[in-house]
Amino acid sequence: MGETRKRGRKPKAPASTTETMDFQYTSASNATQTDYVAAQNDVFSAANDSVPTAAKNDANNPPPARRGRGRPRKSEAGHMEDTEPHAAASPERRPYQNGAVVLEPPPQPVAKWESVAARVVPAMDAVVKVFCVHTEPNYSLPWQRKRQYSSSSSGFIIGGKRVLTNAHSVEHYTQVKLKKRGSDTKYLATVLAIGTECDIGFLDVVAMLTVSDDEFWEGVSPVEFGDLPALQDAVTVVGYPIGGDTISVTSGVVSRIEILSYVHGSTELLGLQIDAAINSGNSGGPAFNDKGNCVGIAFQSLKHEDAENIGYVIPTPVIMHFIQDYEKNGAYTGFPILGVEWQKMENPDLRLAMGMKSDQKGVRIRRIEPTAPESHLLKPSDVILSFDGVKVANDGTGFSYLVSQKYTGDTALVKVLRDSKILEFDIKLETHKRLIPAHTSAKPPSYYIIAGFVFTAVTVPYLRSEYGKDYEFDAPVKLLDKHLHAMAESTDEQLVVISQVLVADINIGYEDIVNTQVLAFNGKPVKNLKSLANMVDNCNDEYLRFDLEYQQLILNFATQIVVLHAKAAKAATLDILTTHCISSAMSDDLKT
């Protein structure tokens, strides 16, 4: 009789040397592993079938052992485990104890996400959790602030003992603390720069922090930056999202690379769209490529009923511009602009009328910003043919992006077509001075109060405070028109409005005036809030007269006026401030 196989317990597999990691990983699908195991079993079945028939049917060889009876028993993991040993169960098993055929299982292939994770793991120690206490200004009641609140987000360590995160993670910060992976110590951080210039409607871009405690930097290698990824390149987002306290890893691919319009079209910057999950708290965390290099900063996921798995990443070109801007100027200065509004030249008749030849392309200057430093060089109806040696397309594709690659104070060679002649100018580039700023650079809002009339300067945060996130639909049409189309005539020009009227006997009949622009005071135009406050405080006339813009569209030429007795108005102001618990009639910036 041939030797029979003894039935019994399945031999124990060798102890695994893989360590359990303290992060959550979201893979594309679990089917990959299942398919692999099935394919591996098929390989062994095919190998067994390849054994010579004589060896199988030898009289001295018994028939194969019967399959174990009963239902498969459950493993500790919860899946059904076959009790009969498999060839793939252990690399030490030999299918035939008395034969010469010994099958060694093929090496276990590493799944793609495991390979990526293995490269990312060394850089994960540089990913930190950011704790911030925010105290936002109250733009509608500018003499006070809103109730403070706390938030947590992600960041990562770069060279020079610095940490990068999203700007909104530390916006209006009161206190910022950082915690490293695996540590229970929170270190106080200092905010070096906040890049609030780039707001694409959801969030802004980058902030830079540092920690004075040397212990924070011990044992951590800074993250290295990689090149801009290509479409379908694998990306791994690392951070501290909601749902747990430990570090989390999600994977995906780059699904879109495009130029996004920031700050209502004044700046165009590069953006990446990925299909990896980006949840609340992931903002500020790095996105790694398959080499373990950072290719961007996660900053938002698109929440829409018609969209799934859409996340946005700030790519390395934008990040490096921010870092180099800070290193070059000692502060964040923003992305420069050329200072012109332009028109597409796609129509062939329009190009002929402008004197363009068949091989010439470009865009027509519609108007020029009065605050642009070189506004006297360029003229309306000039056709911009090239910018710094790069030709401009008729539809202007990428033109604003070319400008945004420069730094504030840089010069660029601009070639224009004027009256059928080609001219070249060295244009100095500066940041955009908007009549209604998109940000206030963390400064408290300015205000001035006289006789219960609250004057303030209009900003985008103010419009959001007054009319909510849909302010572009709900704010007064006159303000929106100036917000979208008006240009500042000087760098210190502001759009001053009466925000509200704190009701008192002195202002009877004026209670309904809300968010109405102030055009002039006692016949003199109002340039900004500080000039208005100075004119009122130094006024020796018997009456104070404010010319306001009339809100009806049909009567564009009409104004309404507010007239107050000067001495009575100034005397009533103190009582009104006391009634409303306001400490000062003007903000600190107007006192200097």
From TrEMBL:
Gene Ontology molecular functions: serine-type endopeptidase activity
Bias (Basic and acidic residues): 73-95
UniProt keyword terms in alphabetical order: Hydrolase, Protease, Serine protease
UniProt key word Protease: yes
Gene Ontology terms: biological process: proteolysis
Record-annotated Protease Do-like PDZ domain positions: 436-589
Compositionally biased intervals (Polar residues): 15-26
Domain PDZ: 347-429
Region: Disordered, residue numbers: 1-26, 48-101
Keyword Ribosomal protein: no
Entries under Pfam families matching the protein: PDZ_2, PDZ_3, Trypsin_2
Biased composition (Basic residues): 1-12
Family named by the database record: Belongs to the peptidase S1C family.
PANTHER family to which the protein is assigned, alphabetical: PROTEASE DO-LIKE 9, PTHR45980
Protein name in UniProt: Protease Do-like 9
